[in-house]
Every structure is written in structure tokens, then in C-alpha cells.
TrEMBL record:
Coiled coil (residue ranges): none
GO molecular function: 2 iron, 2 sulfur cluster binding; metal ion binding; nitrite reductase [NAD(P)H] activity
Keyword Iron: yes
Keyword annotations from UniProtKB, A to Z: 2Fe-2S, Iron, Iron-sulfur, Metal-binding, Nitrate assimilation, Oxidoreductase
Annotated signal peptide: none
Gene: nirD
GO biological process annotation, one example: nitrate assimilation
Protein's name according to its UniProt entry: Nitrite reductase small subunit NirD
Natural source organism: Leptospira fletcheri
SUPFAM superfamilies cross-referenced by the UniProt entry: ISP domain
């Protein structure tokens, strides 16, 4: 059996103080857009592709944070489709729409993202 490992890079995004409470911000790493969310209600951070998989528009960072049966979610501001911030799956039956989820690390008052270095170099976003 062969296993494939991917090189992960940790990128410094910004200090925690620069993020709105219970909202999102779009960050750009190379040509790659990632939505980063701060949930003070849950005391958690989340990150996903900034592009809505339905339309390809870079809008998810402006989406509304919420909860669906205990699952943290973001609602696309254009089409109101909800995406799990744990799995990236579309909540509500449209399994073919999915966003990539990225680890967020908070360290010494700063926000870091861990992303696949090759995806950033190759510009994965549409």
C-alpha cells in the first residue's frame, strides 16, 4: 500500500484582533482565496474556500455564520446554500456542492492557516 503525503505550509494571516467577532474575512495566499471565520459563540475558528461552488463567486467570507443541529455552518450570501464548516459539505441535500476546509491555528495572538503548498502554487481556486 502506498500513502501520499502532502506538504503543508503554515501561513501567518493576521493578529486575532483584526478579525470581526462572529464573522468572516477573505484572505489571499498567493492567488488563492480562503474565507476565515471567527465564532465567539463557539470560541472556534474555521476556514474554507472563499468561492461558492454553486456559482464560483468569491463570496463565502461575507456569509452568515450559524448552526444546523449542532453543526457550524456558513450561508452563501448569494444563494443561501449552507456549508458545514467541519466537513465542507452542502447542508440540505446537494452533496455535489462542497467547499474545502482548512485548519486554523491560533498561536501567540496570531491567526495561521495550514494549506497544501502545491495548491497555493498552482492556484486551485476557479
Amino acid at each position: 500500500m502506498t500513502t501520499k503525503t502532502t506538504e503543508k505550509n503554515r501561513f501567518l494571516v493576521a493578529p486575532v484582533s483584526e478579525f470581526p467577532e462572529d464573522g468572516g474575512v477573505c484572505v489571499k495566499i498567493g492567488s488563492y482565496q480562503i474565507a476565515v471565520f471567527r465564532s465567539t459563540v463557539r470560541d472556534k475558528w474555521y476556514a474554507c474556500d472563499n468561492f461558492c461552488p454553486h456559482s464560483g463567486d468569491p463570496v463565502l467570507s461575507r456569509g452568515i455564520l450559524g448552526d444546523s443541529k449542532g453543526e457550524p455552518k456558513v450561508a452563501c450570501p448569494l444563494h443561501k446554500r449552507n456549508f458545514s464548516l467541519k466537513t465542507g459539505e452542502c447542508i440540505g441535500g446537494e452533496a455535489h456542492y462542497k467547499v474545502e476546509i482548512y485548519p486554523v491555528v491560533i498561536e501567540n495572538g496570531n491567526v495561521y492557516l495550514e494549506v497544501d503548498a502545491a495548491m497555493v502554487r498552482n492556484g486551485k481556486n476557479p
